Protein 1
Amino acid sequence: MNKKYYLNSAIVVLLMALFRFIPPIGSMTTLGMTILGIFLGALWGWITCDMIWPSVLALVMLGFSGYTTNVSEALTSTISNGTIQLILWLLVFSAVLTTTGISKYFVTKLVRSRFCKGHPWRLSIVICLATWICAAFGAGFAAILLCWDLVYTISAQVGYTKKDKWPKMMVCAVIFFNALGALALPFQAGVVTNFGFMFNASNNAYTSYNYIQYLVFSLVFCACTTVVYWLFCRFFLRPDMSLLQKGIEVEEVSALTSKQKFAIGALVALIVLTIIPSCLPAGGAKTFLNTLGTTAIVLLIIVFLTFPRMKDGKPFFTFKELANGGILWPMLFMVATATTIGGALSSADTGFTNSVIQLFSPVFSNASPYVFSIFACLATLALTNVINNTVAAAIMIPVMYPFASQMGVNPLMMTAMICFCANCGLLLPCASPAGAMLHGNKEWVSTKEVELHSLLGIAALALMVILVGIPFGNIIFG
């Protein structure tokens, strides 16, 4: 394993250092080849080695490429990027949900409801809905473990074994709905990241997106995908649900603590303050909130969380507690580097955009905007199941933008679609952290079963992209 690691590390360094000496391809310039080599080296490192050191090395190499004056400028451009700052504070805020046990409270409440008793399919849907909701509010990985444990408990109570179809279906469905929910709300880190890729690729032709438009689109798209997914499960998997007709007892949770109520209030404030500017008339409060900006709103809410004290004089939250519990440093390094180098690669001085257009022009010359949209989304869906989801988006969004602009396709709609397609990396362990968790759960699902259930989710998503996502997205974002 060490030999393989060091071999891949050597490939990373060689790509970054020597790719510039390859004769320029198409309309690429020497600068473009240099930056492309840095990006390919970082990509290889992210897939085979690590997230952090390839990211740092890529930024150092960017400083020597001639794109920036020096390494400090390359590092500064990354740190000062507004998208990266917003992602950083959103990650800090996400710890509010994972450290307070709010996820467990709401999941248990949903499953214990009268709506589920004696209705196996309702119970199954509600467990996955709980995962979707938790993922939507930044507690997806906590929800996966919690809902998996719930499935195991229910299975033991009613008599399912690890060989039965229902627990296998639920273990995989929880992962799929985590992927679906993680892109549901417009202020989530993944959504902000992907639109940041598009803003960089557009050279600031686009600098923002409407939160209300994205929210309406994502809710409709997720609802339609949910219906199709469960229809596939019901008629293709056909699990035996008879054992779930019995009454199921799930441990009751205690009442919400003052700390949990405080956290819920902060979450509501975040939702309201980030979405409401899109609904307000011009002037007054809208101007104030727009001037303040989403990044400052998130940071102010975090600061406010650390201000009040409990009866014993201790703070409800400390900044250290939230930062340690929320910031995923490997992911943050990768996103920051991918955003910076992606923007550099798509700049006019590299010739990359023109080369990509020349490469795909014969394919798209006679294609309609609708066919192009389908191809771009399905290509993202295929790519993300081979490499990391964020990396897939970092590649596809800059490639998509020039064609979308040229063909009259709405880049905002395409970015929203790529958000969902890029986050559905389930087939291979390397495709996403959630995919790695699913493949690692061999006690309940084998590799072949993971692939079967993953293909079911991918098929449902692809069908809804074609029938709902693209047509509805054009209406909403048009």
Note: The radius of gyration is 23 Å.
Protein 2
Amino acid sequence: MEKYSVLMSLYKKERPEYLRLALDSMINQTVKPDEIVLVEDGPLTEELYAVVKEYHEKYPELLHIVINKKNLGLGLALNVGLNVCRNELVARMDTDDISMPDRCEKQLRFLKRHQSITILGGQIEEFITSPDEIVGKRVVPYTNRELKEFMKKRCPFNHMTVMLKKSDIIEAGNYKDWFWNEDYYLWIRLALKGYRFANLPDTLVHTRVGSDMYQRRGGDKYFRSEMGIQRLMLEKKMIDFPTYLMNCGKRLIVEKLMPNKLRGWVFKKFARE
């Protein structure tokens, strides 16, 4: 199996017990990573520093700590971390989720057979308190053609599941800052350059969500970020004007005009299984 890196970004609001579970899920992969690059994005709490120190002392050759003195935000933190990764294949992981034990083995095997693929993701199952109690599943298409069509309306990947090729990401400009849509912005730039995508049908990550997560997918800042993505795709001729209007209209209703509780119901009804 080809060696791979794991890329994670840690923020002060994360909970130490969640970080432990996330790190353990990557350390205990059936095909173990060659390194885990953990970006400390700004100052952390003492409890988080203690967990990072414990794991660094236990796995000094595995855990590579990168320190941002001030918080840069997810996009720029991942930009810094990706540049540090020493391997071509890089698995993204969030610091509060739990990867399935064979997640990376499945991705490595697929990428070995399909070497033209730049981004390979998979499905997620969402939980609030325990991964044994799933509250939702986000299903995304599998093939390059389906994904390129799907991304005209919605983000085509579950970001925390992707394994990517570092050189292609760097060539496309690396991660950049874009509130709530750092990943979608990157996928658009990769698509414009003709890179190929795929998703596995398997659930690769159990994703932690708050009880009000679906309700919080709204507000002016979130809406403006989403509108920026739509304008970008229109300007780059990825979508036509009727699609742009339809996408904007749906987001205006759900993200700006709809009450939180109703938004939560709509999100779970139409955006999740």
Note: Residues 44 and 119 are 31 Å apart (CA to CA).
Protein 3
Amino acid sequence: MKLRTKIVLLTSVMIFTAIFISEAVIWMMIRKNQRMDAVHTVSRDAVEAADACMLFFADTETAYTNADLAYFFKSQHSDCTICLWDDVEIYNQTILTAEELSHSNCRILPAEGKLQRDTGYFFCRKSGHQLAVGCISRYIAGRQLTVFQICDLEQVNGQLSRLAAIMLCIAAAVTGVVCIAMLWILERAFLPLETLSQTTKAIAAGAYEQRVQISGSDEISSLGKDFNGMAEAVKQRNDALLLSEERKTMLMGSLTHELKTPLTAIYGYAQTLLAAKLPEEDRLSALHYICSESERLDRLSKKMMRLLELDREVPLQMQEEPIARLFADARDICAGSAKEKQIQIEIGPCEGNLYCEYDLFCDALVNLLDNALRYSSPESRVLLYTDHGEIIVEDFGCGIPREEIDRITDAFYMVDKSRSRKSGGAGLGLALVKLILQHHGMSLRIESTLGAGTRMILHFVDTPLNT
């Protein structure tokens, strides 16, 4: 059963119950009033009959007989009157008997207007009729005169029955109108929820770009906004996972490709050394090649491990480090390569501190310096300095084509693959630098001119360099 159907049914039951109870209370009050009106009427009639009888027999010296009293009431043409004279029935034109009247539980009617304290009433049922009986007792010439006046309540009960039927019809009609109104209101109110349900199914089916159209400022609109926020977060998370998986797949594919060439060469040289007797010079050359390629594979595996570690977004232990120390340590690490290629690494202005993870950031600088040394001409120089809150690594080598700059930080991407492999590169250095800088809230901007050199600029995205 749908929620709106449950709400309509529950509300209808509550409304009908409330109306029914209210109408029942009103009907009982009306019934009581009408019955008391009938009691007052018969009581007044009984009093008037007794008063008329007292006027008729005003002469207290005359001895009146029962026949005289019966004649008096008969002359009044009263078909609803019973007269008792000293508990003896004198006149009775009703369906009740004196015995039934004498055994009735008569209640005293409170004094009101012309009604007196000796006036009473009671209700009884006879031959399927409900009767209201009013009575009064007077003393005439030393004798007790009791007059009963009777009213049939069937007409009153019929009116009450019709009133009850009308009230039930009104309660049913009101409940029906309320049900229809609530169905219409809930249909409109739940329409956004149906849209939300359809959007949820679409997103579950893979349409992550689907969103709920929001209008209004009620709770359902707020739910729609929260749902859109959740859907956007899910989409971003899913996109990030897909991108990460795609990147890892590409990395593994590129790694496999990069490993294939050196492994093939190592295997070939090893087989040659095992199968053939080579001159000492050729044997040392083969062993030297195997050793250099093994070192290259070792560097490649270490960089791949570092890339995978950073890709898992492990929190870094960062603290303030002197920039001069970072520059000096990075230069010392690259000093051997620089001396081998006869290239001078010069450190410029480097005042201040940097909030970073020391080993990682030093590794980034080493990769940049190593990259600059690799593509610089012998007897040239590489500069490492700070300028206007940016860290710059500048070389005067061959430069990078403009169309290649945007892709050079992709893993395993190399502008000149043959030259990169000869110089020991694998296309992972700048990709690793980019990832390290992202974890430090920095970005890498590359400015290069073919034949003139390249500037690698480490730019702070949010927090400026603390100099």
Note: The first strand starts at residue 81 and ends at 85.
Protein 4
Amino acid sequence: MPIVFDSLDAILNHGFDTVIDVRSPAEFALDHVPGAINLPALDNAQRAAVGTMYKQVSPFDARKVGAGMVVRNIADHIDGPLASKTGAWRPLVYCWRGGQRSGVFRTILSEIGWRAETVQGGYQTFRRLVNRYLYDRPLPHRLVLLDGNTGTAKTAILPRLAARGVQVLDLEGLACHRGSLLGAMPGGQPAQKAFETNLAVALQGLDPSLPVVVEAESSKIGRLTLPPSLWQAMLAAPRIVLNVPLAARATYLAQAYREVIADPQVVADRLRPLRRVRGHAVVDRWVGLSQDGALEDLSLALMQDHYDPAYDKSRRIDEREVIRVVEAAALDDAGQERVADAVVTALEPF
């Protein structure tokens, strides 16, 4: 009988040696159970062909043709990635809804002698559990926002806090985006579902009885949207605000974003949407600074002309409690270490 998982914690701590996702590579790429390997019963082209046959010819012919493809693919997996598995190996297999693909895969593995099981409801069960965790109830975590103007090294402070034993939630790392027009990272962002899976796993690993430091963000990071439960918890969370002189922030930002702002074409492309907000003359001046290689001047101008005014506007609306204002004269390694120490001290009452 397929295994019934009734909580996210249960499926994440499944106890099997390997989780096998037998969906197509395209389905797997959008999202999957953490740690799963992809051994597709049908590849992308085969799945599309069988689906077309099901609609245009007949369900019987589609199942017949699909069965042959599935069996041949499973044989290739057994001769390939699974060839070294011993008799004691215990795999957990799932497909889209716990139906034919995973059932056939499990049957063949079981006939060999492996103790294979399937997931009741397949990936759809896992997705429902993620949704329930992130959407259906308030999060139990005690969040503290690390806040401050652009260029105050908030993201860089998080791993320094983690090294000091503080629980942190790195939303920009999970979203693969720095949260601004210039914030795109190599490789692009994950799908929304994959982001939510990674977010749920990260939250599951945190102790709700201890504070969790998270960088102050908007409700969207790049094209990804924060789940309502997390966003509401962030709106209600107290803040530790980093206060750093403009010149020190410009120095830090020029270094942190060097690979982006050193390319005038990238600057022009990514800042194009701001022409409607800040005007052509302002954006042209920014692009010109990039062309001249004046990266600190460009960082300074971006903060003065755009980021700081936007932050000031949001701050006028924001009434959250401020625990501590941490002052920093510089944001080099030593300066960031001092900031991290000050944040840890500010967290002690919590």
Note: The two ends are 47 Å apart (CA to CA).
